[in-house]
Amino acid sequence: LIPGTYDMATMGYADFGGGPAVGHAHGTGGLSVDTLTGPSSGKPDVTVVLTARRGSNGRYTLNGTSPGPEIRAVKGQLVQVTLVNDNVSDGVTLHWHGVDVPNGEDGVAGVTQDAVRPGASFVYRFTVQDAGTYWYHSHQVGHEQVRQGLFGALVVTEPVFAEGIDQVVQVHTFDGRRTVNGRAGESALDAHAGQTVRARVINTDAGPLRVWVSGAPYRIVAIDGRIVHEPSDITGKSIIVTAGGRVDLTFEMPASGAARVDVGAGAALVAGGAAAAPEPTEVVDFLTYGTRAELGFDPAKATRNFDYRIGRRAGFLDGKPGLWWSINGHLFPDVPMFMVATGDIVRMTIGNTSGEVHPMHLHGHHAVVLSRNGVAATGSPWWFDSLDVGDDETYEIAFVADNPGIWVDHCHNLQHAVDGLLAHLAYT
Ligand code: C2O
Ligand code: CU
């Protein structure tokens, strides 16, 4: 393997090369190095050391647990995480999914850093600018390391103390068993009558997740770490959380003290012994949910327009013949980079005629949904970093290019990323 280049998708095996990583050294001419990394000096407000290990059962842990420790910070704080690789022979990195960090902290092996080899460590430093629910996971051989547990939750709260219960609901399927915060079946939710519960649902699996609350009226207050404007009651409906995506739900505990959050397959958080309610058939559509609010930029003034058309075709990937995912008809790595300049307003049409759903994840940015299948979004601005694009669906999205570097934009069904569904957004 050649230092600083890709081998397969970056989800696959990246090198341990000694050369400088691509994002730091090349391809970002004219930009200062400072814009590419987090603050190099200053005392961190939150300091965490995470030691990655692979067990003999093939499971990965961080500091001995999976999910790894929940990291909490307050908006504006400087977070410093030291990743130590104990014995992961493939190497390991940490990517801060949904946090728009400077490029050098993004944790993508083969793009922004080399994978951390056994016995070595890497320090990530970044300021958390936006309150919200996020997660972290390895971005080296991610399709295996994430599936087998190398991830954890990252919660950024507002500086003002919110009353009530603030509960992470991290959902992952281990060997066919769905778990919430690492536990299968029902676990206790410690909340009593009158308390407000904020449930931060994080889908760390490869496919969409159905979630519903019963026993109390509930609302969606945030999607992918971004606030929903004037959300309405969605009692009797369920929501779908995109693979890699997060949805924050709130409800007030009823006088009975009994309510529950179900994530399917018998896994749930249960307060007061609430009995299981049937799964609602109606699903909330984020396209129309909440009310309109300012975007902060004008998508009509786009300075770049891109197509990101997902298909499937025969060809070779890493020398292997097969049916691979294509982007605009090209197979990885022969997919032209999407080139932008700082300050661009970017519109992208994401189409999918590949026969499967793809949870598309753009690093380093939040984008807003403009339309789906030609139908304009009319609800609260639907900001996202992870978006399910179904077969035969077309989304029009927009974002501001305000975070220089080289970013991957890939399917978060991580096996699909290995099988070619990965592109790059690069700043000139
Ligand atoms: Cu959560 Cu590139 O991934
Ligand atoms: Cu996919």
UniProtKB/TrEMBL annotation:
Protein name in UniProt: Multicopper oxidase family protein
GO molecular function: copper ion binding; oxidoreductase activity
Plastocyanin-like domain location: 60-158, 325-426
InterPro entries on file: Cu-oxidase-like_N (IPR011707), Cu-oxidase_C (IPR011706), Cu-oxidase_fam (IPR045087), Cu_oxidase_Cu_BS (IPR002355), Cupredoxin (IPR008972)
The keyword NADP belongs to this UniProt entry's keyword annotation: no
Stored Pfam families: Cu-oxidase_2, Cu-oxidase_3
Alphabetic keyword roster: Copper, Membrane, Metal-binding, Oxidoreductase, Transmembrane, Transmembrane helix
Domain of life: Bacteria
Keyword match Oxidoreductase: yes
PROSITE patterns: MULTICOPPER_OXIDASE2
